Amino acid sequence: MMRHRQLLLATTCLWALSCASLLSSSTPDGAGLLRVSLNKNRLDREALTAAKVARKQDSRLLGAANGGDEIPLVDYLNTQYFGVVGIGTPPQNFTVIFDTGSSNLWVPSSKCYFSIACYIHHRYKSAKSSTYKADGETCKISYGSGSIVGFFSKDNVLVGDLVVKGQKFIETRREPSVSFILGKFDGILGLGYPEISVGKAPPIWQSMQEQKLLADNVFSFWLNRNPDAPSGGELVFGGVDPERFKGEHTYVPVSRKGYWQFNMGDLLIDGHSTGFCAKGCAAIADSGTSLLAGPTAIVAQVNHAIGAEGILSTECKEVVSQYGEMILNLLIAQTDPQKVCSQIGLCMFDGSHSVSEGIESVVGKENLGSDVMCSACQMAVVWIENQLRENKTKELILQYANQLCERLPSPNGESTVSCNQISKMPNLAFTIANKTFTLTPEQYIVKLEQGGQTVCISGFMAFDIPPPRGPLWILGDVFMGAYHTVFDFGKDRIGFAKSA
């Protein structure tokens, strides 16, 4: 059962259970501070199957808003934390995902006639709201798990006990992806920056800020990772709940507005550098992604260290066999690591520009550097360079690289582990603001329910974004569950502290 290599790691956990009985509770805590309880569903086999069907509908990752100018987030809808908001007067309730990886609020429209997804979810009826204001501007948003087409409207939005007046949101008229048919959520409430908002609609926190509804210009997430706990967690607007974290928050400035993006350092396995992000990587704190997504070169090292079973990559082993010694010699000769693969003829991109005449840039165009052999070479360079620092012999270095090839995840990113071995796995740690944020095996291994039994999977999945936007990490619910996260839009910074 744990041997099924076709399991899809990042699953849309909402798809397993009905949301018909969900109620969003909120508790006001003085003026301008609002607590919103989060609900969650357990991961199970049914959710995995639903996610796999949805994934097959998308042949490639789709760009986010604004013509793909921003980084497309993989597995956008894979979250298990959600709540209920009301739109209109009197409020019409909708189950929404609170997502820091997007910025628009959208729900199905009563004018959605030709999409099955709309008929099996709650639909907004503008005629039944006394505070509705027409807008009419049409729009389309494409995600990794499907697209929506609709038009803008304005109405009051009830978030817990806060009424946000005249909020611009999207009424969807088409939801063609099977993702939305299978999804038990009605819509999305985006909490990203306005820079990635379609139609320049202000995210709900910006509207709260402008209407002076908050005590402080922050919102914070506490995600309850206890699968048996009745509460899924808590989203607080206007402040933080001191009972939900330990110690002090470590803050890091937002490096690029749009997603909640910041600069992070290395990932350590039992205190040892994985090399790829030793000089820094970009990262995004994303409540809308269940797992941790990062460069394949590091994910393979993690899978090797924890004994995860990935799909054997013939191309990777071929590169190590045929070119491994050449890569090793070039690195010993102090060749720039980014130029090694182009020098041996496996890549058309040397890390700064194309080596093929007439191609100005591969970023945003056809990514020649994403060719399988090129990608395998680039990973081999990282692994070999990392082992050189350890003063290993040539034989041990090439043997190690060959072993990592065997730990490469499948195209869907799945990697299973033995549940009995969790206690023997190493700690992993991210370096953020020169501080170490450790994840124990119990925190980075995700347990799935399957036929009444438990399947364990690695919380790490492969996701490669080339320079200059990458390398990139997406720190999803696995990380945010371990670390209480503050999104400070007043000071454009993100804070992390151990969850209580």
UniProtKB/TrEMBL annotation:
It holds the Pfam family Asp. It is found in: Vacuole. Residues 81-497 form the Peptidase A1 domain. One of its GO terms (molecular function) is aspartic-type endopeptidase activity. InterPro entries: Aspartic_peptidase_A1, Aspartic_peptidase_AS, PEPTIDASE_A1, Peptidase_aspartic_dom_sf, Phytepsin, SapB_1, SapB_2, Saposin-like. Keywords: Aspartyl protease, Disulfide bond, Glycoprotein, Hydrolase, Protease, Signal, Vacuole, Zymogen. Residues 311-351, 370-411 form the Saposin B-type domain. It comes from the Eukaryota. GO terms for biological process: proteolysis. Its main location: other. SUPFAM superfamilies: Acid proteases, Saposin. Disulfide bonds join 112-118, 419-456. One of its GO terms (cellular component) is vacuole. Residues 1-25 form the signal peptide. Involved in the breakdown of propeptides of storage proteins in protein-storage vacuoles. Belongs to the peptidase A1 family. This is Aspartic proteinase. It comes from Urochloa decumbens.
